[in-house]
Amino acid sequence: MRKIKGIDLFCGAGGSSLGARAAGAQMVGAVDAWDIATETYKDNFPRAEVVNARLHERSKASIFSNVDSVDLIIASPECTHHSIARGAKPRNEDSRRSGWYVMPFVRAYEPRWIILENVSGMRRWHGFPELMEELSEHYHLRTQLLDASDFGVPQSRKRLFIIGDRLKKPTKVVGEMSTVNARTILDAPDSWTARPAFEGHLSPNTLERIERGMSELGERHDFLVVYYSSDRAGGWQPLDRPIRTLTTVDRFGLVRWVEGTPTFRMLQVSELRKAMGYPDAAKLIRGSRRDKVKLLGNGVCPPVMEAVVRSLTT
User: Fewer CB within 10 Å, N or C, the chain?
Assistant: First the structure.
């Protein structure tokens, strides 16, 4: 049986494609506007045609020179301006319209399957019903909100998946894997340098969150603290549950007790990639630390996409 061929639009570092490949697909093309992302994608998919370009309403499938036909289109349109994390800030309509930029590729290639991934807030975009109507003219659709923690990923990360099959209604994707907690992502205690938490290098807000966690858990219990961005859950979390959603910035620090003293360090890229469910063999070597954090925070958890692709192709 021949391999299913696919392309990945708004591919980022290739988390979706890693999952699709694990499900048996051959990824033959990918597009992203960020050069660090496309370089990373090439590292992991050297045989794919990878294009560094910003997709827009006039983009055409001819952006690929060597992709003649595909069975599967995966796309993760820009989610920044659908995200509830943006609060009431002004939103960029061009970013929200990026879901439409997939359609020229759908019309040109007429793939058997399509998978669009985005934050749940995409459903509140005023253009969402029209996009769904357009897709439903060609595909049987299923829309699901999937949490990565149901698929063996040690992270609570809910994302919307629009799943389409030209021939039949897609089956429901069910995640039935045991919950994996945040403790599993941590590197060995002596892997990274940590400083005493209360020696004056942390902001008052961070110290308040640390004190809150210590008060709840008691001494000598390690935990995670939110170092950056707002948080509605107290600013900390224990290690016996999946880590909360990773974002594009350094968000989480680790409070670890060493010889009776609480120490603090930021989570490292090696730990964040485990929190995304990245396979050990996947390369993430391009750009600065900040770039790597952004690549991961923008990404799709490979085990979730693997499950979605398998639901369509098996």
Answer: N
Please indicate, yes or no, whether residues 148 and 231 belong to a single structural domain of this protein: no
Structural domain including 170 reads 4-177+283-313
Residues β-bridged to residue 165: 113, 140
State the Cα–Cα distance between residues 277 and 182, nearest whole angstrom.
12
pLDDT, one tens digit per residue, over 48-72 is: 999 999 999 889 999 999 999 999 9
Q: CATH number for the domain including 50?
A: 3.40.50.150
**Residue 276: inside a domain, yes or no?**
no
Q: How many structural domains is the chain composed of?
A: 2
Mean pLDDT to the nearest integer, 32-45: 99
pLDDT of residue 86: 42
The pTM (predicted TM-score) of the whole model is 0.93
Kindly state whether residue 107 falls inside one of the protein's structural domains. Answer: yes
pLDDT of amino acid 125 = 87
Residue 96 above 70 pLDDT?
no
CA–CA separation, 8 and 288 (whole Å): 24
Residue whose C-alpha is closest to residue 30's, from 19, 14, 18, 54: 14
Helical axes 35-44 vs 289-297, angle rounded to 10°: 80
Which residues partner with 50 through β-bridges?
30
Q: Is residue 11 annotated as a catalytic residue, yes or no?
A: no
Average pLDDT of the segment spanning 167-178: 96
Identify whether residues 128 and 213 lie together within a single domain.
no
Predicted confidence (pLDDT) per residue in 128-143, tens digit: 999 999 999 999 999 9
Q: Please, what is the Cα angle at 180 between 175 and 184, to 5 degrees?
A: 150
- Which one of 4, 79, 224, 284 is the catalytic residue? 79
Give Cβ neighbours of residue 198 (< 8 Å, ≥ 6 apart): 207, 262
